[in-house]
User: Fold this.
Amino acid sequence: MYASGKYSSRGPALIPRMKTKHRIYYIALFSVVLLGLIATGMFQFWPHSIESSAEWTLEKGSVHDAPLIRLPASSPIPERGDLSCRMHTCFDVYRCGYNPKNKIKVYIYALQRFVDEFGVPISSTGLSREYNDLLSAISDSDFYTDDVTRACLFIPSIDVLNQNSLRIRETAQALAMLPRWDKGMNHLLFNMLPGGPPDYNTALDVPRDRALLAGGGFSTWTYRQGYDVSIPVYSPLSADVLLPERHPGPRRYFILSSQTAIHREYRAELERLKEENGEALLLLDKCSNLSQGAASARKRCCKGQVYDYPQILQESSFCVVLRGARLGQAALSDVLQAGCVPVILADSYILPFSEVLDWKRASVVIPEEKLSEMYTILKSIPHRQVEEMQRQARWFWEAYFSSMKAIGLTTLQIINDRIYPYAARTYEQWNNPPVVKWSSVNSPLFLPLIPPRAPGFTAVVLTYDRIESLFRVITEISKVPSLAKLLIVWNNQNKSPPEESLWPKVGVPLKVVRTKENKLSNRFFPYDEIETEAVLAIDDDIIMLTSDELQFGYEYFNYLYTYKMPGDIKNWVDAHMNCEDIAMNFLVANITGKAPIKVTPRKKFKCPECTAIDGLSLDQTHMVERSECINKFASVFGTMPLKVVEHRADPVLYKDDFPEKLKSFPNIGSL
Assistant:
């Protein structure tokens, strides 16, 4: 007991003495280690947006504190801009590298204030609130990196949203001074108001080398398909006025026009429509009895009555969006927010985000020359479809138009999908509103009301009066497994089509459309009867094609041919009754930048029924005109888009010595 007691009296006494001696040392050491771990974790995992938000927030005075950069008069100026640029020619995808998250990395240049050698700023407004919001949103996103060596895409902090506020030459010099500029390679510029008086170019006039342009007013002439991104013109009312979502359905007015700067010819046409249709159309203008300012911008007037804008837009089923001096209009955003179906009349306008958004589901596009027919066109749309379009219009605004953040991140996602196509968002993801789920079961109340396009293809056969040949074509086409519908375009106004009992019996719907005029372009009109993505346009004398060959390949460009063909090409084709096939090839080649796909061996043209009297191609001037039209079309496009193709796509086992039943397309190539 004594020994035990002795040990217990000394042992406990030694331990407290040791703690007292080294306590400060151990506590200090532990604190240093702990703080080091915490700091390391914060630097490694804390979002970079915390650091960048201080840089991109106007309220914190970052603009005033930004370094001043003086531009010598002799500073280099970038080239105007390469219209032939595509992702594979002017963009270095290898900078993006492999990314397990399939997400591009975007670097934003540090904010700088550029002035000329006399100290005059390159912009009259500096950094706008809209551009500040855009940069802040990107810096807060998963796209952002503050490591310039990891960046795939570079965004200057130079605000070029509004060209009216820019000094063109000096802005270009500032861009060229950026340390990673490299002729604009992998650089992205955002511009919503391009051009200036008197011409109002549809793309930013600032020379920009190879930089990508997210532009708010592109036309088919200036838009580089698959390279630039068409964006909306942001409406400041999106942040200032909150319009509650309204249930789709009939509204007080059928058509409403609210723009104040409409060309006098268009306004005169709208006034004629108003006289013809009475209260169904409300035609508004600016209020002359109100003082100019922010308050008056939110008012519209008609015969002395004042309406609140944009609230009045919710009272109409359709809202007119006419081109102004610029193609892109902020009114489009206001109309979408109101859940009003936009009726867009702006020839050659590239609609915002049209690379991924299906605007047929949310808008009606009418050629400017058809303005007088607008009421009739809109009345032909079924009520249920109008309701679906109203719902889709509102959702487009919420998802893609409602803020600078939405516009900026949508732009980056489109570019991201180009670089990582295997991980790109699908058509449904871009265009279908999110489906509300209840207990893991889709409620029918929230299912998308517009179904996906029907599978298969529609065969559009242009005919005049070659009945025997037409019936042979119909019989052969009807054998194609993927055929969904036959649409016969009867182009003879002086003769009625055969009686129904005389037509070949086929296993798919067959519809005959009688045209008002004998035009070759009728074969490419986007008829309402076409319910498939793919369309085969064929003449009534192409009897040598087999069903296997038709099954092998087809594509859909009818809408672009009818409404987006540049210049007077379509009118030229209709007037000369020639070259519609060449015009279509010009259009497709210009859009895709690719050569056509040659499939199977060349065939000899056979048409026993064709004679020198009724055959267009047998006219002696026919081939001469085809040479002329190639030169004309190249002049209109400003380039020769047609590509040389040096290969042919044949089916697997096409010429191999295998039993026919083992081949997917055995009946190909026979003459």
Notes: The longest helix spans residues 2-45.
